[in-house]
Amino acid sequence: MSDNLQQIVYISSAEHPFTDEEFAEMLAVIRENNEKLGVTGMLLYKDGDFIQVIEGKEDILAPLFKKICSDYRHYSIVEMMRKDIVERQFKKWSMGFHHINNDDPRLEGFNAFFDDDADHEVDPGDALNLLLVFRE
């Protein structure tokens, strides 16, 4: 069993617009599973798009991310970043969550993540920075 910590950041699109009830049910299961697995992270949702970071031991994250990629609730999954880490950046969260509104001032400079412009290149470092903005 590997003790190497890893962090994976990905973006995806929701299969349908999620209700608050659906989020509550989904997050309860995710948080319970993540606590058992020793996984931490943050999930952001805005207008049908997700950005998520997960952190944990490499041998736990690899199969977990494969499972996430096969989840029917989202599609167009793009792994933005996978890197070894020394320390968790989301250690207080089994899975933090924010449903972002259009007028949230923390989005300033990050709106490109939620644009439908297919030609726009999204920087992996900026994806992590956006998640960090919502960490606190």
UniProtKB/TrEMBL annotation:
InterPro entries: Acylphosphatase-like_dom_sf, BLUF_domain. Residues 5-96 form the BLUF domain. SMART domains: BLUF (SM01034). It comes from the Bacteria. Pfam families: BLUF. One of its GO terms (molecular function) is blue light photoreceptor activity. This is BLUF domain-containing protein. It comes from Grimontia indica. The lineage of its organism: Bacteria, Pseudomonadati, Pseudomonadota, Gammaproteobacteria, Vibrionales.
